[in-house]
Amino acid sequence: MVALVWGIVAFLGFLLGLIPCLGWVNWLNIPLAIAGVVIAIIAMSQAGAERRPTGPAILGLVLSVTAVIFGLIRLFLGGGLL
């Protein structure tokens, strides 16, 4: 469940970074999203050992990876990543 919340926060940070003049938010959001990826992977590995459903962890992973990829693209296109 933590991975899902973390992924939602990372995705919302990515959306905030799409607003013109707020592209700098991606510099803060990308490390947050990478931490979300790590948390989601840990949650999936622990859920697999205990035979629990991993739906929220997978969704958190997808949201976090999306935030990382598109955040990097946004930084590159906006000139923030040189």
Tertiary shape: elongated
Number of helices: 3
Instruction: Report the strand count.
Output: 0
The major sheet is characterized as: none
* Low-confidence segments: none
N to C succession of SSEs:
HHH
Portion of residues in beta strands equals under 5%
* Structural class category: mainly alpha
User: What is the residue-mean pLDDT, rounded to a whole number?
Assistant: 88
Radius of gyration: 14 Å
Ends distance: 36 Å
Helix content: over 70%
Features:
82 residues; mainly alpha; 3 helices; elongated
Strand-helix topology:
Elements: H1 2-17, H2 25-50, H3 55-78
Helix pairs in contact: 1-2, 1-3, 2-3
Give a written overview of the molecule.
- With 82 residues, the protein is mainly α.
- It has a domain at 30-46 and 53-77.
- The chain contains 3 helices and no strands.
- Helix 1 (2-17) packs antiparallel against helix 2 (25-50), helix 1 (2-17) runs parallel beside helix 3 and helix 2 (25-50) runs antiparallel to helix 3 (55-78).
- It is elongated, with a radius of gyration of 14 Å.
- 30% of the residues are buried.
- The model has no long low-confidence stretch (mean pLDDT 88).
In short:
By secondary structure, this protein is an all-alpha fold.
